[in-house]
Amino acid sequence: MKNKMRKLVSLSLAVSVAMTMAACGVGGSAQSAEPAAAETAEAADAAETVDPSETDAPAQQEEGNEEAAKDHYTVGICQLVQHVALDAATQGFKDAIVEKLGEDAVTFDEQNAAGDSAQCTTICTGFASDGVDLILANATPALQAAASSTTEIPVLGTSITEYGVALSLDDFNGTVGGNISGTSDLAPLDQQAKMIEELFPEAKNIGILYCSAEANSVYQADTVKAVLEADGLKVNVYTFADSNDVAGVTQSACDESDVLYIPTDNTAASCTEAINNVALPALVPIVAGEEGIAKGCGVATLSIDYYELGKTTGEMAVRILTGEEDIASMPIEYYKNPVKEYNPALCEKLGVEIPEGYTAIPEE
Q: Residue 248: phi, psi to the nearest 5?
C-alpha cells in the first residue's frame, strides 16, 4: 500500500512539474516539457529504490558533527592581577586540562584585570555573553564577578581563601552548590600565627598589613589577630585601600611594630617590592601568608603550592566539562600539605635565625 501511494505521489509530482514548465517556460513549448517530466518521473521512481539507511546518512553525519563539536571547549580565565602565586595557579590549571583532554581540545581565553575589581566584572560578563563552557576565577574579586555574571556557566574559583566569606554565604558547609565550586589556598592560620611566635619570641607588637578591599584578607587577619592576642601579644591592624597607599601604610606599620604579618592578599602580593623598600631599611621582618609574598618581602611563610592548587582545579574542570561530575555537588578542595619556608637572602640581611624544619624558598 505504501509503495502504491509513493508511486501516485511521484506521478503527481512529475505531472505538476511538467505542467508548470509548460505554462511558465520562456522560449520553449509544452513538447519540450514532456522529456523533463519523464526524467522527473524516472528520478522519482529511482528514489523509491534507495535504501532507507542511505537516506538517513546525511542526518547521521550532521548528528556526528554536532557531537564532535562538543569535544572542543572554550574556557574563560579571569585573573585578578599578575603575581607569582596567581600566575602559578593559572598555569597549573591550564596544564591539567591540556594533559587530560589534549592541546587541540580546548581554547583558553585568558584575561587579566590588572588588580581592578570592576575590570573583573567586565571580563566575566563578556565570558557569559560569549557562552564559554567554563570560567576560572583566579582570586576572590574574580570569583565574585563571575558569580554575579552567570548562574548557568560552571565557575571554578582558585586562590580563594574562604568561599563562605567571599560569596557571603551564611550557611556554607564546604559545598557552594549551584554553578560554583573550586579550590582554596587557605593554609592553617593558627599555625601561621604560632610561626610568628616561634621565629620572634621577643616580639611584643605585631602589625597585620593588608588591603581592606579584599574580604578574605579581612578574614585571615581577624583569625590570626585572635590567636596572637590570646597569647598575650599586642596586635595592630594596618590597611591600605589600593596600591597607591601601600608604601605610606607600610611605613606606619613599621614604625609601630616589631614584626609584620601579611596574609594571602593579592594587592600586597603585587606590591612586594614597594613593601620591602620600606620594611627592610626599617629592619622589620615580615611573616607572609604565601610563598610569593615571602619571596618578595618576607622572611618566612607556611605556604601551599599554587601550581599544584591550579592543577587540582584543572582536574575538577575536566570532570565538569566531560560530564563526569556535577559542579553543584562538588565540595571545595584544599591543599593538604602546607610547607614551612624561609627566604635565605632576607633572613641573612635581617639577622633572622631559622630553626630546623624550614625549607629554603627556591630562587628563580
A: -65, -45
For residue 246, how many other CB atoms are within 10 A of its CB? 23
The CATH number of the domain holding residue 227 is 3.40.50.2300
Q: Is 111 helix (H, G, I), strand (E, B) or coil?
A: strand
The rounded distance, in Å, linking the Cα atoms of 344 and 360 is 6
Residue with cell 591592624: 237
Q: Considering its fold, how many domains does the chain have in total? A: 3
Tens place of pLDDT for every residue, the chain, 364 residues? 434 334 333 434 343 434 433 333 333 333 333 444 444 444 444 444 444 344 444 344 344 333 334 689 999 999 999 999 999 999 999 999 999 999 999 999 999 999 999 999 999 999 999 999 999 999 999 999 999 999 999 999 999 999 999 999 998 999 999 999 999 999 999 999 999 999 999 999 999 999 998 989 999 999 999 999 999 999 999 999 989 999 999 999 999 999 999 999 999 999 999 999 999 999 999 999 999 999 999 999 998 999 999 999 999 999 999 999 999 999 999 998 899 999 999 999 999 999 999 999 987 6
User: Helical H runs in 56-116?
Assistant: 57-69, 84-101
Distances (CA, A) of 24 to 91, 158, 232: 68, 70, 102
Residues 214/340, Cβ–Cβ less than 8 Å: no
Residue owning grid cell 586562590: 159
Helices and strands counted in the chain (H then E): 16, 13
Helix intervals (H) in 25-72: 30-48, 52-55, 57-69
Segments forming the whole domain that contains residue 158: 73-185+306-331
Residues 219 and 355 in one domain: yes
| Total length of the chain | 364
Q: Are residues 79 and 25 in the same domain?
A: no
Could you tell me if residue 58 is inside a domain?
Answer: no
Say which DSSP state 213 is in.
Answer: T
Give me the torsion for CA of 299, 221, 111, 116, rounded to 10°.
-110
